[in-house]
Amino acid sequence: MAPSPREEPTLSPPVPPESDDACVLWHRRNLRLTDDRAVEYATANYDTVCPLFIFDPRFYGADGLACDARLRFLHECLADLEDQYTKEGTTLVYAHGSPVDVLDSFLDAGWDAVVNREATGRYGKERDDALAARDGVRFVADDGIRYGQSDREGWAEHAESYFESDPNRPHESGFGRHDLPSTVDIDAIEGEYDVSPSKTDVPTGGRTAALARLDRFLDVVHEYQANVSSPLGAATRASRLSAHLRFGALSVREVYQALDDAIDSNGKEAFVSRLFWNRHYTQKLADWSGWMDTAVNPVLEGIYADNGDEELIRAWKRGRTGFPMVDASMRCLRETGWLNFRMRAMCASVFSFVLKQPWQVGADYMYYHLIDADPAINYTQWQSQSGLKGIGAIRVYNPRKQVRDNDPEGDFVKRWVPELDPVPAKYLDRPERMPLSLQDELGVDVGEDYPYPVVDYDRERRAALDTFAGLRAESEAAMREPDVFRRASLSPKSRNIVEQATTRSDGAGTQSAESAGSDSESANEQAGLDQF
Ligand SMILES: Cc1cc2nc3c(=O)[nH]c(=O)nc-3n(C[C@H](O)[C@H](O)[C@H](O)COP(=O)(O)OP(=O)(O)OC[C@H]3O[C@@H](n4cnc5c(N)ncnc54)[C@H](O)[C@@H]3O)c2cc1C
Questions:
Q1: Parallel/antiparallel/unpaired status of strands 112-116 and 137-140
Q2: Distance (Å, rounded) from C-alpha 78 to C-alpha 444?
Q3: Distance 341 CA to ligand 1 centre (A)
Q4: Where is region (Disordered) located (predicted)?
Q5: Percent over 90 (pLDDT), the chain
Q6: Closest by alpha carbon to 328, among 384, 385, 399?
Q7: Secondary structure element (H or E) that encloses residue 93, with its range
Q8: CA 241 to ligand 1 center in whole angstroms
Q9: Which pLDDT value is given to residue 9?
């Protein structure tokens, strides 16, 4: 076993390579050898390829925004990657420390570095910009994302050709041999950071588990569309591949191409659209790293920022808002690290519009607990569900309607909010409406055993719509600013909305913002809904 990171200097200077033609292959999000551009490039261009993973302290510990279950999932992916390399006759090397420092030490010793480009937030962008300036570092990409492009023209065609083209493969010359030791191992890292997951029902990480999951899903993909909205239906009939895709145990292209074997159905079609959404949101973060902390529309930066109410935030986090579907969802998230799309959207919408709390607090909390936490999807979705583009229709999810539509028997609510177990299904959307005599009979005292709604939903919804309507003209004008327009990285439909607003402001158009059509980036289109 390697020494603990505390006992050993984080960076022991790497041994110089024996050949001039040697590189380290730095794995970050792609924890696989198949369909990985960096693997293909490194094996095709270097005699000796030393695979490397760096444990970055920034993602561990109290400020790390990653729950222990996600760290464990990552470690399982790494253990699987170790096996994949063993089969190739080489070893995965581990280091611990700032990636820039670690890679500098390799560069100083005479190694090149090969790495996949990735969409990242500000920290990752600064890190990658610093590395890109070093001699000997090669960034490569083949992931359906266009880097450094200033507009979205031709994006759909680019994504489509990515999905349809042949996956990357390690070059037949292989990885060569290296003698570099690891300076740390997974056990030492888990000990150092006291990784002890408390969540249940978390999938196992790694390519082996991911391929098995994909295999099972292909048998039921035709049932996808009919089940994806319900939190219990989606738990068994959605793919549940998100965490595997997040850590790159599989590529989205591999999943797309595996669907060739499934018979055509509306479920398959709907699922394919989700894979495009995955690339679409990833493109957004590649276009602007600010999505994680700054409202995309500057007019809405700071909206509700001064409202921070610890009690409301705690009620939302703990699943004690008095809205059963929100409470069940938030408890499910904390316990399992997963929720289906619609429940994530509802929880975000209620946090931002109904409780009127600063969106970043909710987004960070969800990100912390999700096993599939992906900065490109989580934060862009939060901004979308919080109306922060300031264009198109504002949609406020109704948590009571979600019970009626997606959990009519109350199975999901009762599973996660057991204090409501005796309550008849017809009251589960609004338990506070149960007659007192019935509460007595059932032994459920609303206000005592389960809270009254922490706010008046109808009043807060109207207030939010009024606030956003009042900011509409200013928001649309801001979105027409070239810099903002570019960073918003809008889909064609959203661009149409801005263009229609421009026509109106020129006096030529008559359509109101509310009737300008749906924003294709909204939950509405993704979930195929017409009401919330
Ligand atoms: C507020 C909010 C936060 C979210 N945060 C994340 C996140 O951090 N990581 C994440 O992977 N997904 C996120 N999603 C999107 C979606 O909820 C999850 O991808 C999905 O629930 C994961 O389950 P699954 O793998 O069974 O998905 P499936 O429904 O089987 O979809 C297959 C894959 O398509 C992609 N996908 C599905 N829906 C979307 C979407 N709306 N946008 C982009 N890609 C999508 C994912 O990679 C997913 O694994 C978020 C959605 C919302 C509303």
A1: parallel
A2: 47
A3: 6
A4: 482-532
A5: 85
A6: 399
A7: strand 93-96
A8: 9
A9: 39
ipTM, two decimals, is 0.99
Ligand 1 pocket, Cβ-based, cut-off 6 angstroms: 228, 238-242, 245-246, 274-275, 277-278, 281, 340-341, 344-345, 348, 370, 372-374, 377-378, 381-382, 385, 526
Average pLDDT, the chain: 92
The tens digit of pLDDT for each residue in 184-207 reads 999 999 999 999 999 999 999 999
Q: Name the burial class of residue 243, with classes exposed (0-12), middle (13-18) and buried (19+) by CB atoms within 10 angstroms of its CB.
A: buried
Q: Which two tokens stand for residue 509?
A: 């158009």
The model's pLDDT over 319-355, given as tens digits with 9 standing for 90+, comes to 999 999 999 999 999 999 999 999 999 999 999 999 9
- Work out the number of other CB atoms within 10 angstroms of the CB of residue 213: 19
Using the atom order of ligand 1, give the atom closest to the CA of residue 347: 1
Domains of the chain, first to last? 7-142 (3.40.50.620), 207-287 (1.25.40.80), 298-526 (1.10.579.10)
Report CA 311 to chain centroid distance, whole Å: 27
Looking only at Cα atoms, what is the longest distance across the chain?
Answer: 83
Alpha carbon of 500 to those of 132, 392, 503, 506, 507: distances in Å?
A: 40, 10, 5, 10, 11
The single residue listed with the structure tokens 């409301």 is 312
As a three-state string, the secondary structure of 143-177 is CCCCCCCCCCCCHHHHHHHHHHCCCCCCCCCCCCC
